[in-house]
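Q: Can I see a sequence and its folded structure?
A: Here is a first one.
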Amino acid sequence: MPSNWLVIARLVVATLLGGIIGLQRESVNRPAGFRTHVLVSVGSALVMLVSIYGFNAETMGGRFSDPARLAAQVVSGIGFLGAGTILKEGSSVRGLTTAASLWVVAGVGLAVGSGFYLGAVVTTVIVFLALSAFANLDDRLLHRAKYQTVIVDVVNRPGQLGAIGEFLGAHNISIRSVYVHNQDENESVRLKMFLQLPIDCQLEEIMAGLASVDGVLAVTPRR
């Protein structure tokens, strides 16, 4: 059996590595964020620890058990959790990247639980870069889309963000992130939106159309 400190160390490392990826998903408002990724990573590490040390020759009366059998169920079982993050909106599908990150985090947890720290750390770094630094690289290289930050001041009332989203969706514009700031004692709200626009989209026309949406007070593009 491993020492208590070794068990604690592996679970803590699994928490840190899963949390790094989870924070990135949380920062872009994905349904599976920090807590979900931490739980998956720690749970996977625990399953691997149980597989290795809970069913060894000492506990099984001299009989050996394959530690991969129990751990393998994590890889297949994580699919059910990942499926809950996938959403179909019209002709587009969202959540595949988050589902994939959950699957990878499960692998990271298994690696930590088995003591394969190098593989777990390197995988975490690669995944974090793929989710953050490389997030828009494919679109930019293939010139499939362009990106724009826009500041929108709106009246503070229910349904206002939905009206803006409806206008943008009608022009095939995706909201990659949005930050809400209250101002003027809650009479108005400032939205900082990061938009993904079709490559042939005319920014001036979109800004003018957005300014004409009921309840929009001002629209300011940012470079």
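Q: Show me another, different protein.
A: A second, unrelated one:
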Amino acid sequence: MFFSIMTSVILPILLLVLIGAFLQKKFSMNLSHLSKLLTYCLMPAAVFLNLYLVELDAQLLTQMIVYLLLFFSLVTVMLSQLLSKLLHLKAGEKAALNNSITLMNSGNYGLPVSQLVFSGQPIGITVQIFVLVFQNILTYSYGLYNLLAASKSLLEILKAFIRMPVIYAVLLGLFLQYLNVTLPDFLMVPIEHLANGFVALALLLLGAQLSAISIRYFHRVITWALLGRLIAVPVIAFLLISILGISGVIAQSLFIASSFPTSRNTSSLALEYNVEPELHAQIVLYSTLLSILTVTFTIYLSTILF
């Protein structure tokens, strides 16, 4: 399974990143424009489609909400905030550490992994979709606050939050799904095309960002971010899953989801708002590379522990 995960999921993702890096080196693309295209068009479409199509089960939803609230709000966020205070970081560095530990790549990394591992158990994929939805909400609330708090007032942060189209994509997707509204093809087809383009452009943009980085030194924030994201957080997830008595495929899916590398959205938003974009991108790069081993090992552990 270790070799299968690397060749079927991880390596294709890394290949897209490398293609993006090559294209940036060759053509010097405007990354700010690409970031806006991703943030204001493709990302909202992907988020809306996920929420609109997922079948919500009341019991599963309740279980997910309890776990996710405890996991992110009371555990992961507290861990990142504690580390930030102990390390006496500057505002931009604090934002990078907090977001890199709290926000994980549940979309263009997590979903492919879940689809491979739980190909015969749809509930595992459904759990990952719930995690993805919660991550999107967390990214554009807590994550955005961390970035803008480095240079903006609370009022400016609220204004930026309200202007984010993904927020309305979340609300609209939930609303239409709850009412069981069937959208006509002339709306669904373009939305699906936009959503399908999200993963490729996201990874290409990440590669383009990484290609422009000049690594003169290994920032201490990167070390703590990697330890927190790839090691401490999965351990916390295992303890919380055990305490809550979650078992079976749901437990496996949640445990695996906790091990995913830092979200690519952290680097995209950092680029969008110019808050330590290179530091964010480096953390995403290193966590993604190291996750080749850590995610595969976590998948193996999930079959033993649950």
